[in-house]
Amino acid sequence: MESSLMSDNKTQPFGEVLLESIDDSLQILGEEPKNAVYQYLSTMQSLDRKDIPDRLEDFQSGLKNALGGAARVVERLILRKLYQKIGSTFRETSEYEFSEHVNEARRRFEGTRQRPPVQRDQIGQAKLKKGQVPG
Prior knowledge:
By secondary structure, the protein is mostly helical. It is 56% helix and 0% strand.
């Protein structure tokens, strides 16, 4: 079953949203292969599921070792799912690695969580401080 999208994610830490995206994406392989990938990461990479958000390069390497060429397809699935969950659009670029895309998603996620709501005046226009440019 697919995890809920954006509405619940604003209260979750980014790492949990990332792990849900990985779970959802690995599920395409089936439950047993998904578990086998996590077991491989744990055994061969000394990488537990909960540590993946802090060890993206190890995850990427372990995924490649476990799945071979299929790892790139799974990475793209993870990134699409992740960006969908944070309410953003994933645009694949050849110069970015998987971990860089995840870090960009983290920046977007944390930026949307920390941005205060725009205050509006009585006619609905955004109030700006002197020198502020509307965005």
